[in-house]
Recover the amino acids of this structure.
């Protein structure tokens, strides 16, 4: 009977040792937290939530910005009008918020700043590495020349 008990005890100890080694080596399962994005389809709500609201044009890619949810694509943004925070006539760096749980690179539903070819409003908030759009799908809105701002300020 001792022979049947020892292999089980050894197997249990060996399993615990393998699990501990996997954890220490970085091979443990990764637990990812998927955010529930707030709805900012109402421009007044987006304006209130944003730390910075600027009107202008995307001037091109500029590497990445680190955020609490991982790195995101960064862009240079030429500010025509700083509505809230920021300064008119400057170029700022803004990250395009990615969705870490979209099943791809974070931009499978699109990149709001990459597709902004014309004059836009950007609603941004401060994150760990700088300014980023409010959500992956909300934070950039077209604003043709001469059009009024869609919110009260």
């Amino acid at each position: 009977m001792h022979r049947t008990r020892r292999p089980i005890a050894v197997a249990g100890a060996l399993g615990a040792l393998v699990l501990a080694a996997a954890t220490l080596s970085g091979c443990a399962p990764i637990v990812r937290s998927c955010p529930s994005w707030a709805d900012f389809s109402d421009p007044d709500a987006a304006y209130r939530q944003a730390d910075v609201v600027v009107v202008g044009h995307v001037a091109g890619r500029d590497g990445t910005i680190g955020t609490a949810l991982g790195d995101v694509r960064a862009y240079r943004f030429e500010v025509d009008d700083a509505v809230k925070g920021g300064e008119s006539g400057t170029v700022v760096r803004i990250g395009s918020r990615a969705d870490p749980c979209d099943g791809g690179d974070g931009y499978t539903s699109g990149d709001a700043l990459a597709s902004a070819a014309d004059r836009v409003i950007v609603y941004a908030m401060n994150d760990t590495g700088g300014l980023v759009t409010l959500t992956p799908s909300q934070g950039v809105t077209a604003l043709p020349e001469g059009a009024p701002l869609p919110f009260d300020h």
